[in-house]
Amino acid sequence: MPLSDAPAIDPAQAATAGATTPTAEARAAGAATGPDQAVAVEVRGLVKRYDGRAVVDGLDLVARPGAVTAVLGPNGAGKTTTIECCEGLRSPDGGTVRVLGRDPVADARALRPRVGVMLQDGGLPTGVRALELLRHVAAMYATPRPVDELAERLGLHGFARTTVRRLSGGQRQRVALAAAVVGRPDVVFLDEPSAGMDPQSRRAVWDLVRELRADGVAIVLTTHLMDEAADLADHVHVVDHGRVIASGSVRELTDAGTGPGTVRIEAAPGLDLTPLLTTLNTPSTPLSAGYLSSQSPPVQQIPSTQRSGQEGWVGSESEAGVYTLTGAVDPAALAAVTAWLAERGVLARSVTTGRRTLEDVFLDLTGRNLR
Ligand SMILES: Nc1ncnc2c1ncn2[C@@H]1O[C@H](COP(=O)(O)OP(=O)(O)OP(=O)(O)O)[C@@H](O)[C@H]1O
């Protein structure tokens, strides 16, 4: 089948005709054999410049087999450029990149059958029918996944005979994902895999990613969906201005320091929160002093100039009689809340505290300004 309008870069490039693809058992058995196995992807001091401007500027990143490594960052942070260097699609200007122990540019041929790539824009040839494309890619591998089973899982049969050009964005993404994994790769790069997908498709993608992880595949995922990262990622790298500014498990990141949490109060409607917020934000009290002073080892020290997030307690009556306060939740803050209620003779139906979310951490680290 001619792929006449194939773009310069497409997921089928990840395939090599007649390539052997390791089974999950072989992958597990091989874990101790090669120099490349404990770390699937290793990026050290990566620099990439465009027009003299370093868009990746000394970036370090590691991804391991059997784990999902999420790369988060604002628009233009350098995530895609980094991933493209790992995929061998861009040559670094500095630093080293190793995928399965090999140089992705120099050893591209050897890596092709072992690396699955799902590009941000799908990168698929547009004149080919969806299922034909998948069969074509599968035929390039010695032991591909059964195409029909994969198509079923990702719901491709409903538009199997539609050309890629006519697919919706979410449908195209699903075909691109199928093409990236059909060859049973050891490493999969997924650049915003579920962007534009409906909730059902997203769920199917997440299930597939979990299955790949269980099979020992190293998955590198860029995403803007914090719930996706929080749900899937074993390890998170937050990238900004071409560098990793924080790194750790989701738990490590959300537990770090005394950053913001929430206090939710259910009580009588119409309470004026101003005096409470004033108390909580009074500098003489220690209540807000710890805010944004993250010292936990897994999180790298961030220069204060980059900490442009929220700088004190804020709160509002989010619905009648429900108040949400956000700030540095600690025992003293909670005591101030209950004292404030007591002073007003208000018996709250509930006062609950919540932990920081990954999105809170992300905004803390990268600020709230648009990029
Ligand atoms: N081929 C190119 N030529 C010039 N500049 C480029 C090129 N590719 C990317 N850039 C620039 O490099 C910077 C990083 O882009 P990159 O696509 O890596 O960011 P990103 O973190 O993936 O962003 P997004 O979340 O929007 O996808 C941006 O400022 C972008 O404009």
TrEMBL record:
Gene Ontology molecular functions: ATP binding
PROSITE patterns: ABC_TRANSPORTER_1, ABC_TRANSPORTER_2
Entries under InterPro entries matching the protein: AAA+_ATPase, ABC_transporter-like_ATP-bd, ABC_transporter-like_CS, ABC_transporter_ATP-binding, P-loop_NTPase
Entries under CDD domains matching the protein: ABC_DR_subfamily_A (cd03230)
Keywords: Antibiotic resistance, ATP-binding, Nucleotide-binding, Transport
Pfam annotation, one family: ABC_tran
Segments for region (Disordered): 1-34, 291-312
Record's bilayer topology term: Peripheral membrane protein
Domain of life: Bacteria
Compositional bias of kind Low complexity: 291-306
ABC transporter domain span: 41-266
Cell compartments where the protein resides: Cell membrane
Name assigned to this protein: ABC-2 type transport system ATP-binding protein
Origin species: Promicromonospora iranensis
